[in-house]
Every structure is written in structure tokens, then in C-alpha cells.
Amino acid sequence: IEEATELLEDILELSRQGKSSEPERTMDVSVLVDDVVEDSAETGSPVTLVSTQRSVAVCRPVLMRRALRNLIDNATAYGGAARLTVESGAGQVSVHIDDDGPGMTPEALNKATDPFYRGEASRNRDTGGTGLGLTLCEAIARAHGGSLILENRNPNGLRATITLPLAKLATSAAPAR
Question: What's the angle, vertex CA 110, arms to CA 89 and CA 88, rounded to 5?
């Protein structure tokens, strides 16, 4: 029943992308990432925040938390630990989640965000989820005008990066009338 419930929740969340009733907020993504890392660390998860850079974007915080938690869970499950970095440049903020696992085959990298694709071949739910986690992360990033990039690290490990456009902040206040 728990597995069916988890699958149904993932499918419903995926179907809602682009239709979320959660209001968008202009916020510092580094603060959001710091909060998610702290929450994960409090549960005993091997996760650290390597470095952050103030990066203001327009986002839906609950959805972004979901995407970050999914990526952290994957990094800790398949790579032993998660290290996060927040940086900005070229009009975007990038949140990198690095691990030291085996990485992914080129085929798995190409299919990883396909619905129900599981890189872990067994049907054991303890070693693999519903096959919707990365699909959901990609949908959340796209709903924010960004992307999800998965790439192998050298010599080993995987880097998952969520990019979002930086918020266009007003440089001066409008004159009073």
C-alpha cells in the first residue's frame, strides 16, 4: 500500500506541473538550499553544503524543495553522500548536487528523466524508487524556466544540476508622485 501511495503521489505531482497553485516567490535560492541541506542533515543524511552564492530567483519553494530532496536522496542512495554548491552567473543560478558513486552509463544518462525509467535494474523498491523522481525534478525545473542536467564526474560520481533564471531585480525605486 505504501508503494502504491508513493507512486500515486509522484504521478499526481508530475501531472500538476505547470498548474501548481503554490504562489511564486522572489527569494534567495541559497537560503532555500541551506534549509534543505540542514533538514536532511538533521535526519542523519550524509549531506553537506560546500559553498553558496547569493542568487535571487522566482520560484515555488515547496516544489523546489521536493526536487532538491529527490536529488539529495539519489546522491546519498547511489553515491554515498551529497555535496551541494550554489553559484550564479550568465543570468542563471545553478544548484549542483555531487556524489562519489559509480555515475551512470551513457544510456542511463539519456533515459534517466524518462517516466518510470530506473537505472537500478532489480525490482527491489529498497534500491530503486518509482522511476519518477528525476522525471519530477526535470518537470519542476522546467516549470521554473530552468533545466535539470545530469553528468558524470571525473574520475567517478554524478553531478545533478538544477538551473533557474535569476530574478530581474529593479535597480532603482520608482519616483514618488
Answer: 10
CA distances from 177 to 55, 63, 173, 174 (A): 32, 39, 12, 9
Q: Cα 62 from chain centroid?
A: 12
The predicted pLDDT at position 145 comes to 94
Q: Which of 17-26, 91-100, 124-133, 138-147 has the highest mean pLDDT?
A: 91-100
Is 63 in contact with 27 (CB distance < 8 Å)?
no
Is the per-residue pLDDT at 175 higher than 90? no
**pTM, to two decimals:** 0.83
Task: Return the pLDDT at 11.
Answer: 65
Task: Yes or no: say if 54 and 28 are a contact pair by the CB < 8 Å rule.
Answer: yes
Angle CA 138–144–6, to nearest 5: 45
The grid coordinates listed for 26 are 522572489
Lowest mean pLDDT among 63-72, 113-122, 144-153: 113-122
- Report the candidate in 48, 54, 18, 28 with the shortest Cα–Cα distance to residue 138: 18
Q: Which of 80, 97, 101 is nearest to 148 (CA)?
A: 97
